[in-house]
Specification:
Elements: H1 21-32, E1 52-55, E2 62-64, E3 77-84, E4 91-93, H2 94-103
Length: 104
Amino acid sequence: MICPVCDQSFTPNGRQRYCTDACKATAYRRRHHHGQPAPIVIPARQPRRPITVYECATCDTRALGQQRCNDCHTFMTRIGYGGHCPSCDEPIAINELLHQTQLD
C-alpha cells in the first residue's frame, strides 16, 4: 500500500492507512486545520519610561525618561509620551504637538 501523505510504500498492519504516526498526524492537521488564519503574534512589552516626558512643578525643567529633577531633587509630573524636539533638542510631548496643530 502507498501512504497518501508521503507517497512511500508500506505493508499495512490491520486497517492502517498511513506508514507512520507522523504521517497520520500530518493528515489529521491537513484535514482539520486547513484554511485557518495564522495565530496572532503579540509583540513583547516595552518599557514606557524612556519615551515619557516629565516636568518639574518647582522649576519647570523638563526631562525625557527621568522622573526626578536634577536641580530640585523632587519628583516631576508626567506630561505624556514624546521625545526630543528636532530643532531645539528640548523634550516635547506628542499631545502638545497635536494640540498645537489643532489650534492652527
